[in-house]
Amino acid sequence: MLINQVRAFSTTTQLGSLARWYQKLWRSKGPTNGPPYAHVTQVGDPVLRQKAQLVPPEAVTSPEVRFLVQAMIDVMRKYSCVGLAAPQIGISLRILVMEFKDKLRDEYTSAEYKIKEMDTLPLTVGRPTFMVVLINPELKVTNYEKKSFTEACASVKGFSAEVPRYSEVLLSGLDENGKSKELTLKGWNARIAQHEMDHLDGVIYTDVMDRKTFACSCWQAVNANYGRVQIAFHKK
Question: Among all residues, which ones are annotated catalytic?
Answer without folding.
Answer: 196
